[in-house]
Structures are given as structure tokens and as C-alpha cells.
Amino acid sequence: MSTFVFPGDPVPIPPTPGKPLKLGPGLLHVPNADGSDSPDTVIATKAGVLGTNKKRKELWVESNAIRYVPAPQESVVGIITSRSGEGYRVDIAGAHTAYLDSLSFEGASKRNKPNLKVGSIVYARVSLAHKDMEPELECVDANTRKADGFGELKGGFVVQCSLRLCRRLFDQSYFLLPTLGAKFQMEIVLGLNGRIWIKTAEPKTTIAIARCIDAVDALSYGQEEVEALINAMDLP
């Protein structure tokens, strides 16, 4: 059963043994002011449905928000818009561009660092997100400091979808990606900012995948309808 919350509502914290709980958009952690041993409080900052991912141990508030609001540790698909000093300005579909330091890559140094061009696509992690500061990005894992998939995405095509669908696609039990993977050979990178990077061998395959994503997002297609849409395309 879905749990609907309003701004200011306390949110129950599910147990996450062995790994800390990650709080996504719409939630705020409020430590105990008196320093007591009682559990800290998490409150909702916007109205919506409480979303959870038990495997990734994440908690967030789902809403019909159109613009992405950066949150720490979230992965995003960004587009380089300009150089800025020793780094880059990156469009992450938020209210402000984010800053990506040229040294925030695995093995990067002042003599050996990536040379990204305007229009390049990067898969990055939000390292800093605060309402009074511009977001900052890194292309390394927070724990290992290795790339672990982060960095420049070469080739491919970026499609836009709702923030709600992006979060659903991170759930391995959600039908869409397994259905597409059973039919097409593809590479897909998901950004929690409502962007999906797709790379296939042929443009027509990329277009077919983009059509399926749009059908689920805009028309609320289910698994059977997506399979029927794929069969109607008559692709090899």
C-alpha cells in the first residue's frame, strides 16, 4: 500500500542492517538537538508518495516534479556546456548547471586529465548539493575512488523521461529493461535526473527503444503492450 506524505510529516525509517539508508529527494534528516540516544528524525519536504528500494536501501518521495533537484550521491547523465577554469559546467536538467572538476576522474592529474568538449555526455555522481551552492559532480565512486562506470559516454543517444520512471528503472523487478534486453542488444545508462543514455549497433534499434520508453512514460504502457509494440515494429 502506498504511503502519501505532506511537507513536515515524519517518515518512518525502515531497518537497513549492514548499510546506512540513503535519503533521496523530498526527505530531510533532522538530528536530535538534545544529543539524546533516541532515533533521529526524517521529515518530508514535499508532498508525494513515499518510495523505497530495499536492495539499494534508498528512501525518497515520488511526485510529479518536472525539474530535477540534485541530491548527494545520486548518479546523473550530464551534458558539457562550457569550460570553467580547471573544470567544466554541466547541464544536469536542474535549475542551475553543475561544476565538474577535471581532476574528479579516476587517475586524473594535472598532466593527465580528460579533455572534454562542449556537447560531450558524462555519467557522474553528485558529490555536493545544497540550496545555496551550485551542485558539484565527480566521475568516481565515493568509496573506491574508482571510475566504476562513471566518466565520458561516447556515442549513443540521450532520451528524456520523467523522474518517476527513472527511479522505477533502477528497480530490477520493474519490467521495462528486462523486456527490452530480451529483444535488443544495447547499452543503457540511467540518470536519476530524468535522462537515459542508449547505445546500440543501429540507429533504428535506438529509435525503437526510445519509443518503448516514451510509451511507458507518457502512455502508461504495461509489459504486454510494450511487447506488442516491439513486435509491431518488425525489427530483426
Overview of this protein structure:
It is globular, with a radius of gyration of 19 Å. The longest helix is centred in the C-terminal third of the chain and has 17 residues. A hairpin with a 2-residue loop joins strand 7 and strand 8. Helix 3 runs antiparallel to helix 4. Helices cover 18% and strands 34% of the residues. The strands form four sheets. Strands 7-8-9-11-10 form a five-stranded mixed beta barrel. It has three domains: 59 residues, no CATH class; 79 residues, OB fold (Dihydrolipoamide Acetyltransferase, E2P); 77 residues, K Homology domain, type 1 (Ribosomal Protein S8, Chain: A, domain 1, 2-Layer Sandwich), CATH 3.30.1370.10. With 236 residues, it is of the alpha+beta class. It has four helices and 15 strands. One of its GO terms (biological process) is TRAMP-dependent tRNA surveillance pathway.
| Measured distance between first and last alpha carbons | 41 Å
The helix/strand class is: alpha+beta
Sketch the topology as an H/E string, one letter per element.
EEEEEEEEEEEEEHHEEHH
Q: Output the CATH topology of the largest domain.
A: OB fold (Dihydrolipoamide Acetyltransferase, E2P)
- Relative helix content: 10-25%
SS field, number of helical segments: 4
